[in-house]
């Protein structure tokens, strides 16, 4: 997923709401959109180098999205909209091994009272996919979730329902950085999500995780890593 414009370097100052922040660009404080409602406390620290994408629009209050954060020698994408797009891009290139053999991809599909990110299909099988964005890494361990997620638990239950109806179903964790070697489900942060995912995996829901190659040019899915549940 390539950025359409050159990114602008800025220093993070403060989070002003769930979807906005104040940053410093060449000595000027500006308000930017944060495309992620998560807490992201490990990313958003005063003085942290970040990168902005200019968005041309006549209706927005802000002119930039905060899309990348420098974490030492690692760039981390903080755009929670990206994971389904990255999966779609890799699927179209034939690069997602778990879903080889499927020929069609649909976005934002309904299943019962839930809306799931992706449905891939072939002549004889459907697979429902829910994508999850991961930004928290400690050491070499990616961690999800960083806060309780009732919505995430609902999605896992919907995937389990799909399996019970005879379909394939998968949750795909996209770690939006390259420095993780495995993913750990955060039992302390959200024991209900942990238990629900563990039971769903035991009953047939597939669980995958991939790191990302993140640069100032764009973000792409990189490598599969193991998931510890």
Précis, in short:
This protein is 17% helix and 44% strand.
How is the topology of this model organized?
Elements: E1 8-17, E2 20-25, E3 28-33, E4 49-54, E5 64-71, E6 74-77, H1 82-92, E7 104-111, E8 114-121, E9 126-134, E10 137-138, E11 141-144, H2 150-164, E12 168-175, E13 182-185, H3 191-202, E14 206-214, E15 219-224, E16 227-228
Parallel strand pairs: 9-12, 11-13, 12-14, 13-16
Antiparallel strand pairs: 1-2, 1-4, 2-3, 4-5, 5-6, 7-8, 8-9, 10-11, 14-15
Helix pairs in contact: 2-3
Could you explain the architecture of this structure?
- With 229 residues, the chain is of the alpha+beta class.
- It folds into two domains: 8-76, Beta Barrel (OB fold (Dihydrolipoamide Acetyltransferase, E2P)), CATH 2.40.50; 82-228, Trna Endonuclease, Chain: A, domain 1 (3-Layer(aba) Sandwich), CATH 3.40.1350.
- The protein has three helices and 16 strands.
- The protein has helices at 82-92, 150-164, 191-202, and strands at residues 8-17, 20-25, 28-33, 49-54, 64-71, 74-77, 104-111, 114-121, 126-134, 137-138, 141-144, 168-175, 182-185, 206-214, 219-224, 227-228.
- The strands form three sheets. The protein has a six-stranded antiparallel sheet, with no helix packed on it. A six-stranded mixed sheet has the order 7-8-9-12-14-15. A four-stranded mixed sheet has the order 10-11-13-16, with no helix packed on it.
- Strand 1 and strand 2 (20-25) form a beta hairpin.
- Helix 2 runs parallel beside helix 3 (191-202).
- It is globular, with a radius of gyration of 18 Å.
